[in-house]
Amino acid sequence: MEMIKNFLRQFTVVPLVGWLIGSFVAVLLEYYLGDAISYYLYLPKIPVLFGALTMLKEPLLIPSVLAYDLIIYIVPVLLLGRLLAAFSNRVATWFEALPLWLATVVHLAAFYGILHLWAGINDYRVLVVKLTMVAIILTVSLNIINGYQGEFSCSHPGFMALGAYASSSLTLMLFADDKMFGAALLPPALGPWLFPLILIFGGAVAAIGSLVVAIPSFRTRGDYLAIISLAFMFIVKSAIENMEFLGGPRGMSSQPNYATLPIIFIWTMLCIWIIHNFISSTMGKALNAVRDNEAAANSMTVNTRKTKMTAFMFGAFWAGVAGGLFAHVLRYVNPGTFGIQKLAEILAMVYFGGLNSIYGSIVGAVSISVLGEALRPLELFKWIIIPLILILVMIFRPYGLISFTEINVKGLMRPKNRSRSGGAE
Fold it and tell me: Which residues are CB-neighbours of 378 under 8 A, at least 6 positions away?
């Protein structure tokens, strides 16, 4: 055990930029040599998801998959990260002198470049990355209500459905020749430029729809929000199923392909940044006060009703945006998607990652999304393993893996060699 700790301690001097350099080289290695390496390891093709699917489908290939991951990912990232630690720290020191927003944008651009190159190797990876980023938006937005607000809402699939159908209807009506809506009203070339406004419209529809839940439930106490929000989810689902002009139970298809990887990445980063600013603002502090003790917050002049309704509508808005992106990723949407299974999936991400933590929400969304895809070959057993993992987390970490922890952007990007050089802050 002590040997492992000593080994891991060697990498504590590697800053974030060092890991990005190592990851970039690893992805380049896979991009140019992945086919050859997989061939000599007797793999049928490049493993699409770090080899998890291959190992479950063909257990005899487990040694080959582990060797592939070791050669492509683990060794290059760790070796380059450690060898270039001094250079990476000098680069991190240079970044530290830049304005925080500029250094953040440069790091995010580098991260997106790595992600784009890795996902571009096959279409399945692109789909997984897109859906994972949509899940991050959903999880972070629900954490506003279930975490920072301290309520228990079950209405996120309903908000997602409102955003998905509102944005899909607009894009099909304005930019597509659709059998349901007829000829396009605007030139299709305008579609990608107006798509952000359409997503905002879908979010606004979801935010307005959230008033149906917020107005009656916030006049009560206890678990009424959970009951009303659950009813709202089923009402939205049933209403859409009975609206033939929206496709009814058959759903709506042929949405334009506007939800590209860079578009979803930008929206995900915007969501994280805006929600982080929201919870760090006066309104966010008031929300925490309401969660901890509503009566005391009210006595300290906090308008508790306004605070709760604002946060609830804000979370619903981002759920609507996520629904719009989701519909345009799959280019098909039907009301059955936004049922109890989707609710269970979103709640699992929130509580697995951790309450009151954007960082935890990101970890929860990525973990559950990737785990769900990796265990897909197990079919029915997947729905036994994932709940079992959640139960164990709830037993040993009741508030999730990373709860009450916020992202320290400046701390992530700072040099890691200061404590050894005597320059620690």
Answer: 56, 385
Q: How far apart are CA 383 and CA 60, in angstroms?
A: 24
The whole-angstrom separation of Cα 60 and Cα 385 is 22
Q: Give the separation between CA 124 and CA 7, rounded to whole angstroms.
A: 35
Task: Please count the CA atoms within 13 angstroms of the CA of 173 that sit on its side-chain side.
Answer: 9
Amino acid letter for position 45:
K
* CA 256 – CA 329 distance, rounded (Å): 9
Q: Cβ distance 38 to 46 under 8 Å? A: yes
Q: Residues 6 or more apart from 260 whose CB is under 8 A from it?
A: none
| 288, two tokens | 């925490």
Is the pTM of the predicted complex or chain greater than 0.85? yes
Three-state DSSP class for 127? helix
Q: What are phi and psi of 267, to 5 degrees?
A: -65, -35
Beta strand 252-253 with 332-333 is antiparallel
Cα separation of 161 and 209, whole Å?
11
Cα angle for residues 106, 112, 114 (degrees, 5° grid)? 110
Pair 318, 269: CB distance under 8 Å: no
C-alpha–C-alpha distance, residues 10 and 19, integer Å: 13
Q: How far is CA 349 from the centre of its chain?
A: 9
* Tokens 């992106």, located at residue: 325
Residue-wise burial string across 314-329, b where 16 or more C-beta atoms lie within 10 A, e elsewhere: bbbbbbbbbbbbbbbb
Q: How many Å apart are CA 232 and CA 228, to the nearest integer?
A: 6
Query: Tokens 């659950």, residue?
Result: 230
Residues of the chain with CATH 1.10.3470: 123-410
Q: Across-strand partners of 253?
A: 332
- Fold adopted by 123-410: ABC transporter involved in vitamin B12 uptake, BtuC (1.10.3470)
User: What pLDDT digit, counting tens, does each position of 359-416 carry?
Assistant: 999 999 999 998 888 888 877 777 788 888 888 888 888 778 888 777 788 888 888 8
